[in-house]
Amino acid sequence: MTEKVKPYKDSNLGKKEQVTKMFDTISKEYDGLNRVISFGIDVKWRKKVVEIIGNTNPTSILDIATGTGDLAINLVETKAEKIIGLDISDGMLQVGREKIEKLNLTNTIEMVLGDSEKIPFEDNSFDAITVAFGVRNFEDLEKGLSEIYRVLKTGGTFVVLETSVPTKAPYKQGYNFYSTKILPLIGKLFSKDKSAYKYLSDSAAAFPYGEAFNNILQKIGFIAIENKPQTFGVASIYIAKK
After folding, report:
1. Sign (positive/negative) of CA torsion 197, 203, 206, 211?
2. Residue-wise DSSP of 53-111
3. In Å, how far are 98, 110, 134, 213 from 130, measured between CA atoms?
């Protein structure tokens, strides 16, 4: 059972409601601040996800926890006929819709308000499913992964891009200093939600990365599971099949 880290410790709301509120609040600033926080390396990680998905020649893709649609937009390169971005935060989706409209991609990408633990699609609906920096926000991780398994077609590919914690010195110590001291400070200075970026740091530290996450994917029923650490282990790309 993974630890449930929540954005607002003084709130009686459940994790799901708190995460929704947090992302609605920071939606307008999220893209810019995200580039600063990751030094832009997240762009490179997303490109790798697109390459992995593109090699499977999908017709339909579901991008869960799509946020402002960065990965969904990148996935257009796969030549998929339909890409759906699903997110629980309407604020983030609105920002994403504006970006998609400016890029004239409304015929390819559809942004849908929905819960990753109650995905509003039928069984075996998608050739590929992606999640970038979103699975750690699930209130019930196994329930969310089970829903993803349900709507993924047999033979389909599931790719997760998520933060992880470096295990080797000096990267481990450097990451710990940055995530516990610098990241929350950046959030305090530049975000109107003072708790948001501390939550993003805390939730990353509590997430069952690496072999622990591989084991959860296997428990759900996924096969051919791979784990590819990125940039000294500060993030990982997980690949699995149904």
Report:
1. negative
2. HHTT--SEEEEET-TTSHHHHHGGGGT-SEEEEEES-HHHHHHHHHHHHHTT-TTTEEE
3. 21, 15, 10, 15
Q: What tokens were used for 44?
A: 């490179």
Return d(Cα 128, Cα 58) in angstroms, integer: 6
Burial-class residue 61 by CB neighbours within 10 Å (0-12, 13-18, 19+): buried
Tokens coding 100: 């998609």
- In terms of Cβ atoms closer than 10 Å to its own Cβ (0-12, 13-18, 19+), residue 177 is exposed
Has this prediction a pTM greater than 0.70?
yes
CA distance 224 to 218: 9
Assigned token pair, 170? 């000096």
Q: pLDDT tens across 84-122, in order?
A: 999 999 999 999 999 999 999 999 999 999 999 999 999
How far does Cα 196 stand from its chain's mean position?
A: 16
SS3 content of the chain, % helix, strand, coil (to 5): 50, 20, 30
CA gap 143, 170 in Å, rounded: 36
User: Which residue pairs, CB below 8 angstroms and at least 24 apart, start in 171-175?
Assistant: 171/232, 171/233, 171/234, 175/232, 175/233, 175/234
pLDDT per position as a tens digit, 53-89: 999 999 999 999 999 999 999 999 999 999 999 999 9
